[in-house]
Amino acid sequence: MTMLDALAIGMIVTSLAVFGLRNLKLSVIVYAIETLLLVGIFAMLASKFNASQLSMWAVVAFFTKVLFVPAILLWLIKKLNVVSEDEPVGGFFVSPVIAMGFSLAIAMSINPIFLQFSLIQEKIMLLAAVCVFMMGVFGFMLRNSFIKQILAYCLFENGIHLSLALMAYNSNELVELGILTDAIFAVIIMSVLAIRFYKAYGSLDTSKATNLRG
């Protein structure tokens, strides 16, 4: 197993932790660690394949996704004075198992297809990219906490970012800038919505917004 493979597996493990941990502050910290692993992958790929674009991706991702986004979320948690999430759909134990099981199954099923279009032929990293993306998708489906759903968005954005690095790292710099800008503004907007939701319902449990249902 190479160091790149180890970092990719680390991203899978940390995505499970972000999804499954009940403590919100700890979940944000683990997300920052996962993104730091992503930055490490960018840096190592840049060196291995002489891809200067990925070096820039690593620098920008470090400041925006390792530092800035977690800082926003930690500020949000402190402002709302919340410690942990309410019980999610399926319970605290079952939902992470379901999410990881289906995420790995989907990743393994479509990994051969992705490999055909990938500039960098790294099976485990492509598997990790899809798995992390799907953990984010399941986070939206199975977690009720508004902050957990913001983290779910951050997870599948990390998955997209890694898959783009493997499949199209030579794309225009504007693509990378667009991804990072979208991520930052999305987190800011969702944080504002979380504050307004908390003021309206006294909770971050999105399942309590019954009056929004059709």
TrEMBL record:
One GO CC term on file: plasma membrane
Mostly located where?
Answer: membrane
State the UniProt keywords alphabetically: Cell membrane, Membrane, Transmembrane, Transmembrane helix
What Pfam families does UniProt report for this protein, alphabetically? Answer: Oxidored_q2 (PF00420)
Instruction: Give the membrane topology, semicolon-separated if more than one.
Output: Multi-pass membrane protein
The subcellular localization recorded is: Cell membrane
Please list every transmembrane segment annotated in the UniProt record, as residue ranges: 6-21, 28-49, 55-77, 89-112, 124-143, 150-171, 177-198
| Keyword Repeat in annotation | no
Q: Which top-level group of life is the source organism from?
A: Bacteria
Looking at the keywords, is Transferase present? no
NCBIfam families annotated for this entry?
Answer: PRK11492.1
Annotated protein name in UniProt? Hydrogenase 4 membrane subunit
- Organism for this UniProt entry: Campylobacter massiliensis
